[in-house]
Amino acid sequence: MNILFVCSRNIWRSPTAEAIYKNRKDLNVRSAGTEPSARIKVSAKNISWADIIFVMEKKHKQRLLQKFRHEIEDKTLVILDIEDDYQYMDNELIDMIRVSVDQYL
Protein backbone atom coordinates (compact mmCIF):
# COMPACT_ATOMS: atom_id res chain seq x y z
CA MET A 1 0.00 0.00 0.00
CA ASN A 2 1.29 3.49 -0.90
CA ILE A 3 0.72 6.13 1.76
CA LEU A 4 1.27 9.88 1.48
CA PHE A 5 1.43 12.05 4.62
CA VAL A 6 0.81 15.77 4.11
CA CYS A 7 1.35 18.79 6.35
CA SER A 8 2.24 22.42 5.63
CA ARG A 9 6.01 22.65 5.28
CA ASN A 10 7.04 18.97 5.45
CA ILE A 11 9.38 19.61 8.36
CA TRP A 12 7.87 18.07 11.51
CA ARG A 13 4.52 16.30 11.27
CA SER A 14 4.50 14.50 7.93
CA PRO A 15 8.21 13.52 8.09
CA THR A 16 7.55 12.09 11.56
CA ALA A 17 4.69 10.01 10.17
CA GLU A 18 6.88 8.89 7.27
CA ALA A 19 9.64 7.86 9.70
CA ILE A 20 7.21 5.86 11.85
CA TYR A 21 5.96 3.73 8.95
CA LYS A 22 8.88 3.66 6.49
CA ASN A 23 10.32 0.35 7.72
CA ARG A 24 7.11 -1.63 7.37
CA LYS A 25 7.50 -4.08 4.51
CA ASP A 26 3.81 -3.91 3.60
CA LEU A 27 3.86 -0.10 3.17
CA ASN A 28 5.52 2.43 0.89
CA VAL A 29 5.43 5.86 2.50
CA ARG A 30 6.22 9.41 1.44
CA SER A 31 5.60 12.83 2.90
CA ALA A 32 5.10 16.27 1.42
CA GLY A 33 3.88 19.77 2.27
CA THR A 34 1.30 22.12 0.82
CA GLU A 35 3.21 25.38 1.28
CA PRO A 36 5.52 26.90 -1.37
CA SER A 37 8.27 26.77 1.29
CA ALA A 38 7.79 23.03 1.93
CA ARG A 39 10.90 20.87 2.08
CA ILE A 40 9.17 18.50 -0.39
CA LYS A 41 6.15 20.02 -2.13
CA VAL A 42 3.10 17.87 -2.74
CA SER A 43 2.65 17.14 -6.44
CA ALA A 44 0.17 15.50 -8.77
CA LYS A 45 2.67 12.66 -9.10
CA ASN A 46 2.68 12.07 -5.29
CA ILE A 47 -1.10 12.06 -5.21
CA SER A 48 -1.45 9.71 -8.18
CA TRP A 49 1.06 7.34 -6.54
CA ALA A 50 -0.78 7.22 -3.20
CA ASP A 51 -3.47 4.70 -2.30
CA ILE A 52 -4.35 6.67 0.83
CA ILE A 53 -3.51 10.24 1.80
CA PHE A 54 -3.33 11.38 5.40
CA VAL A 55 -3.44 15.14 5.94
CA MET A 56 -2.67 16.70 9.30
CA GLU A 57 -5.38 19.40 9.21
CA LYS A 58 -8.58 20.26 7.34
CA LYS A 59 -6.77 23.15 5.60
CA HIS A 60 -4.43 20.64 3.95
CA LYS A 61 -7.37 18.76 2.46
CA GLN A 62 -8.81 22.04 1.19
CA ARG A 63 -5.49 22.97 -0.44
CA LEU A 64 -5.23 19.58 -2.12
CA LEU A 65 -8.80 19.87 -3.41
CA GLN A 66 -8.07 23.33 -4.81
CA LYS A 67 -4.87 22.38 -6.57
CA PHE A 68 -5.35 18.67 -7.40
CA ARG A 69 -9.11 18.16 -7.62
CA HIS A 70 -8.89 15.69 -10.53
CA GLU A 71 -6.03 13.61 -9.07
CA ILE A 72 -7.68 13.36 -5.65
CA GLU A 73 -11.12 12.35 -6.95
CA ASP A 74 -10.93 8.61 -6.26
CA LYS A 75 -8.46 8.70 -3.38
CA THR A 76 -9.06 7.89 0.26
CA LEU A 77 -8.20 11.08 2.13
CA VAL A 78 -8.11 11.15 5.93
CA ILE A 79 -7.85 14.25 8.13
CA LEU A 80 -5.83 13.42 11.27
CA ASP A 81 -6.61 16.68 13.12
CA ILE A 82 -3.05 17.12 14.37
CA GLU A 83 -2.14 20.78 14.74
CA ASP A 84 1.33 22.21 14.17
CA ASP A 85 2.34 22.11 17.85
CA TYR A 86 5.08 19.47 17.74
CA GLN A 87 8.72 19.02 16.80
CA TYR A 88 10.04 16.19 14.62
CA MET A 89 9.68 12.80 16.37
CA ASP A 90 8.04 14.33 19.46
CA ASN A 91 6.74 11.42 21.59
CA GLU A 92 3.24 12.89 21.83
CA LEU A 93 3.16 13.44 18.06
CA ILE A 94 4.24 9.83 17.45
CA ASP A 95 1.48 8.54 19.72
CA MET A 96 -1.17 10.72 18.05
CA ILE A 97 -0.12 9.61 14.57
CA ARG A 98 -0.11 5.92 15.50
CA VAL A 99 -3.52 6.06 17.16
CA SER A 100 -5.02 7.90 14.19
CA VAL A 101 -3.34 6.04 11.32
CA ASP A 102 -3.17 2.43 12.52
CA GLN A 103 -6.92 1.94 12.28
CA TYR A 104 -6.68 2.47 8.49
CA LEU A 105 -3.84 0.04 7.87
Overview of the structural elements:
By secondary structure, the protein is of the alpha/beta class. It has a single domain, classed as 3-Layer(aba) Sandwich (Rossmann fold). Helix content is 39%, strand content 19%. It has 4 helices and 4 strands, in the order βαβαβαβα. A 4-stranded parallel β-sheet has the order 2-1-3-4.
Low-confidence stretches: none
Which sequence of strands runs across the widest sheet? 2-1-3-4
Q: How many extended strands?
A: 4
Q: Level of helix content?
A: 25-40%
Give the CATH class. Answer: Alpha Beta
Kindly provide the radius of gyration, computed on alpha-carbon positions and rounded to a whole number of angstroms.
Answer: 12 Å
Taking the sheet with the most strands, its summary is: 4 strands, parallel
One letter per element, helices H and strands E, the order comes to EHEHEHEH
User: What do the pLDDT scores average to?
Assistant: 97
The assigned CATH architecture is 3-Layer(aba) Sandwich
What shape does the CA trace take? globular
Classify the beta-strand content into a percent band. Answer: 15-25%
List the total number of helices.
4
Distance from N terminus to C terminus (CA atoms, Å) equals 9 Å
